[in-house]
Amino acid sequence: MPDSAPTPAITKAPATGSHPALPAALLSAARRIADTHHAEHGTPVTSAQLATRMGVALPVATAALAQL
After folding, report:
1. Above 50 in pLDDT, residue 55?
2. % helix, strand, coil for the chain, step of 5
3. Which of 8, 24, 46, 60 could pair with 56 in a Cys bridge, judged by C-beta atoms 3.0 to 4.6 Å apart?
């Protein structure tokens, strides 16, 4: 068998409900954006706003909010 390099581990948060586990770095960025939005506007960030700010698809932003 040919030698293969080990696959690097990706740190993921525990999955909740039917949403896929997301990388910790993505969740950290989502939390920072959500906290900043709440501090500036006094309301929670929506999935659509988070998707726009992060440059990710709406389902990814929705999953991130569900895990925060």
Report:
1. yes
2. 55, 5, 45
3. 60
